[in-house]
Write a structure and sequence with these properties.
Length: 318
């Protein structure tokens, strides 16, 4: 039986310290498995030596395809560029800093041999060199699962494999701010979870600090959940019911002569501040959704390709 071809998709940003080792280990693993393969690197505006290293790799190994973007557009636009260039039957998405161990690749490909109808293989990393996963990563996955009603494992990794059918479906989404992790979790394709080992990053520290993960969480909730506008609606409803009930009580007490109307600058100040805060929060939520709509209406390209080197699985003479 002919083995499926494999496209390995790797977004790159300032990963000069790990690229050559990553290429060497990937090639050794894939050659041992016997698959025809291509390794697609997308340089997302790196400012280190990543560009020069990728150019050397494509010269030395024609199975490598290097795409350099005109500037830094972000991880997910870089993934989109890799998806658009891929041609393999099975696609593997992984990080460039060797956190995703190349030698674990057989675990991702084996389920497709066992189940021809399988679409996606996700990885769940069990440990990071003997340590637990980052707190910000666990917090993101746990919060996202609760806010969007999408149940995903706590230690879900970027490292995953999926069929050409899923790759085509991902490219069908026209949204400019797509986040592929949550998006794939909501697509509904048949999937399994595979435990893998994960290493510490090589060459640089991960760029996904708390600030970036928080921004990613907010972007994901806006794009894939309805919790924000539901929260604002419920806050407005509770304030309306509460203030209306309080007004009725005050009027009844005044009519019955039990108590005079409340008078005082402190009460007015508290009510004014409370309502101002609620209104500003509501405007902020509406602005977030409106800005998303504005971006989609503009329909600007997610990225610009500056240069492309190598052939991958394509015929270099074509």
């Amino acid at each position: 039986m002919t083995l499926p071809t494999v496209s390995v998709l790797i977004p790159v940003y300032n990963n000069a310290g790990s690229l050559e080792e990553l290429h060497r280990r990937l090639v050794a693993t894939l050659e041992q498995l016997g698959h025809l393969f291509e390794i697609i690197f997308v340089d997302d505006g790196s400012v280190d030596e990543s560009f020069a290293i990728l150019r050397r790799l494509t010269v030395a190994d024609p199975r490598c395809l290097a795409i350099t973007l005109s500037r830094n557009f972000g991880q997910h636009p870089a993934i989109n560029a890799a998806l658009a260039a891929a041609t393999g039957d099975i696609n593997v998405l992984m990080d460039a800093d060797l956190q995703d161990v190349p030698e674990e690749l057989p675990r991702l490909l084996a389920p497709f041999q066992d189940d021809p109808d399988l679409d996606i293989v996700y990885t769940v990393f069990e440990y990071v060199d003997g340590q637990r996963s980052r707190f910000t990563s666990r917090l993101f996955h746990r919060t996202f699962a609760r806010l969007t009603d999408v149940q995903i494992p706590e230690n879900l990794g970027t490292y995953r494999a999926f069929t050409a059918l899923v790759r085509t479906a991902l490219l069908d989404y026209p949204e400019r701010n797509g986040v592929y992790g949550p998006l794939m979790s909501r697509m509904g394709y048949r999937h399994v979870y595979v435990p893998v080992h994960r290493s510490q990053p090589v060459g640089r520290k991960t760029s996904y600090d708390f600030r970036r993960r928080f921004a990613l969480a907010v972007s994901s909730v806006i794009a894939y959940g309805s919790v924000l506008h539901r929260f604002v609606t419920w806050v407005g409803a509770l304030l309306t019911v509460g203030s209306g009930g309080y007004l009725i009580v005050v009027l009844i007490q005044y009519v019955s002569g039990y108590r005079t109307l409340v008078n005082g600058q402190l009460l007015l100040l508290v009510i004014t501040v409370l309502m101002s805060g609620v209104l500003l929060m509501t405007v902020g939520v509406l602005t977030a959704y409106t800005y998303r709509i504005f971006q989609e209406v503009l329909a600007r390209p997610r990225y610009h390709v500056a240069r492309t080197f190598g052939a991958g699985l394509r015929d270099p003479d074509a």
